[in-house]
What we know:
By secondary structure, the protein is of the alpha/beta class. 32% of the residues lie in helices and 19% in strands. The protein folds into two domains: 3-245, no CATH class; 254-299.
Amino acid sequence: xxxxxxxxxxxxxxxxxxxxxxxxxxxxxxxxxxxxxxxxxxxxxxxxxxxxxxxxxxxxxxxxxxxxxxxxxxxxxxxxxxxxxxxxxxxxxxxxxxxxxxxxxxxxxxxxxxxxxxxxxxxxxxxxxxxxxxxxxxxxxxxxxxxxxxxxxxxxxxxxxxxxxxxxxxxxxxxxxxxxxxxxxxxxxxxxxxxxxxxxxxxxxxxxxxxxxxxxxxxxxxxxxxxxxxxxxxxxxxxxxxxxxxxxxxxxxxxxxxxxxxxxxxxxxxxxxxxxxxxxxxxxxxxxxxxxxxxxxxxxxx
Length: 302
């Protein structure tokens, strides 16, 4: 994140998502992964603030960003001071990255990150906001590493009990590479549930969630509500390993023997529906309220 990005169209979607989650009782912790401005044109896409067609999504946020965009020295501190993410805690220390050899950068990065865990200790969900996304290949002290989160950093947040969401730019990745990028943290955190939302205004920006299994169904419910809110159409859900995250099984499978000697299996999916697997391997999903009647009607044919 750079101060020059403040109030860009991407910021509107980002804060819209975080504000919605905060409004549902989730305490947000923000690590800005702050880097120095670079003098480029990035972050200057604030034209959306000149008309009212997007204001309906979050009028309070829209008006605040319009005010901040007009400030010559806009910064993340303005976002914090405006209270745009209710109840949030922040870590705004810039990433140390210049004038050092590789070993010094590695040590300073480690100290910088450890400090962030103290500032964000009380957060339920930590949002990491790097310039580019996560990296699985760059070394900790290499040049340019300040633009990325490191997998061990996301892992440490997660293992401390936090859920995590981090920004990721699709860039010019082809389809296969993008599919791998969305799920790369599963090799580091095998038990986590991954959920990804993409914001489509301006350039594509994706927010990848790493959610503890015990929290996944609750987050699914909240994020599904977000997609039906005033932000409908601006965000879409990314499939994970070719599967809609709502189809993720969140309960142990229950096997029920039938009178004809065959079995069916039942499980609960993340969207709260009942998944039924027939003796022939076919699957259907039913709302819990409809399940009993549907089960009785179909069991005769099974």
